[in-house]
Amino acid sequence: KPFKDSILSIDPEPALDFTTTLRNVEMRDFMKRDLPSGTLEGNIDLKGTFKSLEAAGSLKGKDMAFDRIRMGDLAADLRFSGGKLFIDTIEVRKNTSMLHVSGAAQVLDQNTMKPLKDPTYALNIQGDSILIEDFVDTVKGKIALAATLEGSVRKPRGTVDLHATDVDLGVQRFHEMKLVCVLDGEKVRFKALQLAVAPGELIEGSGWITLEKAYQIDLVSKGVSLGNIEKIREREIGEGRILFHISGHGTLENPQLTGEITVENPRFKGRSFEDFQVQLDLRDQVAHIAGKLNFDLKGSYHVQKGDFSAIVQCSRTELEPYFRLMDQKHLR
Predict the structure, then answer these.
(1) What is the pLDDT of residues 136-184, one digit of tens each?
(2) Is there a contact between 156 and 146 (Cβ–Cβ < 8 Å)?
(3) Is 93's pLDDT higher than 90?
(4) Which helix (H) or strand (E) holds 230?
(5) What are the distances in angstroms from CA 60 to CA 24, 26, 72, 273?
(6) Rounded-to-integer distance, Cα 228 and Cα 236, Å
(7) Spatial separation of the C-alpha atoms in residues 248 and 244, rounded to whole Å
């Protein structure tokens, strides 16, 4: 209704009242980039004026995908009022995997109806028995996810609880993974981090990271069998257990780490070697390594430039295990 009662007078805030029906709408037909795919169906109702717009929609998507992520089928019931988007439910289903999202987000100023610089939100995300391979090709495993998020885009708050089993990252498999993190508006704090390479063989961690990419981290393992580390097993390097304690802080652009790595009861081709330790110190983009294996080693590696230098002192030393670790099997 763009006109007032007089045919010559245009209403500056015309009232809206119409319904749009979507039938087999191809996402690619409306996107500049050929990333999203799938079809949409549903109804969208609009009422009010541009400054007091109210909307409600029920949408269903089939075979939705974004780049290399397969979303599967989607069902959403949404409302919009007072500049706030209400997510009554969003359900994503792929085969037997299902993810539920509900909540609300204030995206426009209630008075001016202009976009907020820092939108606020409250979201609840739940997923149980999600098969990762249903959505991507590069990773396998089963995930249970529970997240409660609120706050704003710049100051997010909430908790995330993730539990995964039988995870295959392609380069390494994990029997189990657990992560509990808390967002306090400034930092994401990792309250619990456990990676089980095999039953009873844990890597445990804690720490935090900020939105400005500053971080603090602490990683400890009391023992992981070398045979359960994919690259070592594939290269037939040998047997033993690796223990380590690595801690660090700084920023992702200029990380700092210190740590000690120990290998206990190493064996290669049935021959036992003495336990050995390696110390690691990373700062100012240079990693310094020092250790006493069955030879003395001091080295440095520039993270950005890729330059590497080392001093090795050895006498009648069996080097084949180390060449295998570097994937140089032809050297002995």
Answers:
(1) 999 999 999 999 999 999 999 999 999 999 999 999 999 999 999 999 9
(2) no
(3) yes
(4) helix 230-234
(5) 10, 12, 11, 62
(6) 12
(7) 13
